[in-house]
Design goal:
Elements (H helix, E strand, L loop, with lengths): L1 H8 L9 H17 L9 E3 L4 E2 L4 H18 L3 H16 L6 E2 L10 E2 H18 L2 H17 L23 H14 L2 H15 L21 H18 L2 H14 L24 E2 H18 L5 H14 L16 E2 L9 E3 H17 L1
Helix pairs in contact: 2-13, 3-4, 3-5, 3-13, 4-5, 5-6, 5-7, 6-7, 7-8, 7-9, 8-9, 9-10, 9-11, 11-12, 11-13, 12-13
Length: 371
């Protein structure tokens, strides 16, 4: 068994650094990723092979906004609040006329609205509105939420306005969009948004097998979904359930979280992909998926009072800390989080995506705040 673990993990990792130090390093890396674009948005990723930053990415910049606002309060460093507001202003400036958010990075030649990206930026506008009471952000959030509701099919799924950069048009992980709409219903006091969110999660439950595994839940390979998209779907289901007071949604999310909690390797990391029997389907780990599942396990612990969820989260956070390079001479690498570990793995190969650092920060802040 130990030989298998060493094979899967790509060798031993170094000792984990202090959580607060790793958190600060990730925040500083994301600040550099924002500065690299010169527009207020955050670069999608740093390509370590080409040694260059990608263009600003509307989708993930949107959900970095609440992370930076939270970190500003957590750390007492007001600069991160200012950075978050600049991101929100940029998102408003590039919002499409119909209310949606464009696919891809800002330098992409394709300019079409997409469901998933719009949902992720909605998180940012809602947080910015709550922080500033700037009417621009409330208006952007309303327009985005209204567009999402109008684009939804009667059964709760979103089939139109899929990303042109994803292989599959229908995705269970759009429950992450439902989560944004449920949040909008709270912040903007609009029950129709929660109704739409609940319909989407009900549709997603029809995609769930008895063992908790979701169909139609990957960017490329629905037979072996990434832990990244598994976590998107699970978190959306959990949070909509909590907001709507729907125990069935929460229980379903817990079923998935429990199944994934049985899959970590000896070093605490998850296999990057899992098959329909929850068996490892890759030798590498998806760093983003590790962080997202750590968030879900911690949210379940907080909401249910069941502390048995915490060890898996702590192990995943410890692993991610152990592979974060906080001493790299290259500032475009220092403090960032790779897409895969080893870095040559099958997700965002040799790249440092901004969303890996974002979810890493969220997972660490939850653990630190829980004491």
């Amino acid at each position: 068994m130990n030989a298998v673990i060493r094979l899967l993990s790509g060798g031993r990792t170094g000792p984990a650094v202090d959580m607060r130090y790793g958190l600060q390093a990730a925040a500083e890396w994301l600040a550099r990723a924002q500065d690299a674009t010169g527009c207020g948005g955050v670069s999608a990723y740093y390509d370590a092979t080409k040694r260059q930053w990608a263009g600003a990415y509307p989708e993930t910049t949107g959900y970095i906004i609440p992370t930076f606002l939270r970190y500003a309060q957590f750390s007492g460093q007001g600069d991160y609040r200012e950075r978050a507001i600049r991101m929100a202003e940029w998102e408003t400036a590039i919002q499409l006329p119909e209310g949606g958010v464009r696919a891809g990075t800002l330098d992409s030649t394709t300019m079409v609205p997409t469901i998933f990206n719009t949902g992720q930026v909605l998180f940012g506008w809602l947080s910015a509105w709550q922080q500033t009471r700037d009417a621009r952000f409330r208006d952007s959030a309303l327009r985005a939420a209204d567009w999402l509701v109008a684009a939804q099919d009667p059964d709760g799924a979103w089939r139109r306005f899929a990303s042109p950069f994803a292989v599959h048009a229908v995705n269970t992980y759009n429950t992450r969009v439902a989560f944004a709409l449920a949040k909008a219903s709270q912040v903007l006091q609009e029950p129709l948004y929660l109704d739409a969110a609940v319909r989407n999660v009900q549709w997603a439950l029809a995609q769930m097998q008895p063992n908790g595994w979701f169909q139609n839940n990957d960017l490329e390979d629905n037979d072996r979904p990434l832990t990244h998209t598994i976590a998107y779907a699970t978190r959306g289901m959990l949070e909509v359930g909590l907001i709507a007071g729907n125990d069935a949604f929460v229980d379903a999310a817990a079923r998935v979280a429990r199944a994934v909690a049985q899959t970590p390797r000896g070093d605490g990391a998850l296999p990057g992909r899992l098959d329909s029997a929850w068996r490892p389907a890759s030798r590498w780990t998806c760093v983003t998926g590790n962080a997202q599942m750590a968030i879900i396990w911690q949210r379940l612990a907080a909401e249910t009072g069941e502390h048995g969820w915490k060890p898996a989260a702590e192990h995943a956070n410890r692993f991610n800390l152990s592979i974060q390079d906080v001493a790299a001479t290259d500032s475009a690498v220092r403090g960032g989080m790779p897409g895969s570990y080893p870095r040559s793995g099958g997700y965002m190969r040799n790249r440092y995506p901004n969303w890996a650092a974002k979810f890493f920060m969220d997972a660490l802040m939850l653990q630190l705040q829980a004491g």
